[in-house]
Amino acid sequence: EAGVTQSPTHLIKTRGQQATLRCSPISGHTSVYWYQQALGLGLQFLLWYDEGEERNRGNFPPRFSGRQFPNYSSELNVNALELEDSALYLCASSLEASGHQETQYFGPGTRLLVL
Amino acid sequence: GDSVTQMEGPVTLSEEAFLTINCTYTATGYPSLFWYVQYPGEGLQLLLKATKADDKGSNKGFEATYRKETTSFHLEKGSVQVSDSAVYFCALSDSSSYKLIFGSGTRLLVRP
After folding, report:
1. Quick one: DSSP state of residue A84?
2. pLDDT in tens, B43-66
3. CB neighbourhood size of A61 (10 A)
4. Which residue of A has its CA nearest to B39?
5. In this complex, do A100 and B45 lie within 8 Å of one another by their Cβ atoms?
């Protein structure tokens, strides 16, 4: 069974540009989560989508946004890129959000570099 | 708010040594607890989990017990291998928002 996939693996942008990151969850999973792993800041929760709706977002500015498609895949968009947005962006998926006991399975990540 | 505290790394051990990585948490309610491992250049892999007090999670020789009285979830392995070298993250799943809250990670280096 295929795991969580993310694309692209690497992305290089300049300040002010927009970045789009994509994630395909494990088949049968309806919840998708996005996390940022920035150097020195650890892993921080960004966004949670379930059944096409945004359920929760972390403490990030509105220029971080996303959506979930009918096939449960998801996009993360980062507008007006800043140097400090350089990080590894990890996507995770889980079965329906019926409880916090569900395991989140992670993809390999997209490494974003902002120059 | 909820939080997870892990011991500072790096932890350097010789092969076949005993491993303990300490993890304590602060949470309202009854979170689920997880250990994830990250190998160089990769994403996170679930190592083990426990969903209620006194549960023991185990996988690949690693174990951790959910201790509500001490709010701890320490990771242990009886005999480490060079291939266990990685960064280990302790995390809790918030019972209301379902997001994972991670510790800062502990880098483990196992020498032959």
Report:
1. G
2. 899 999 999 999 999 999 999 999
3. 10
4. A108
5. no
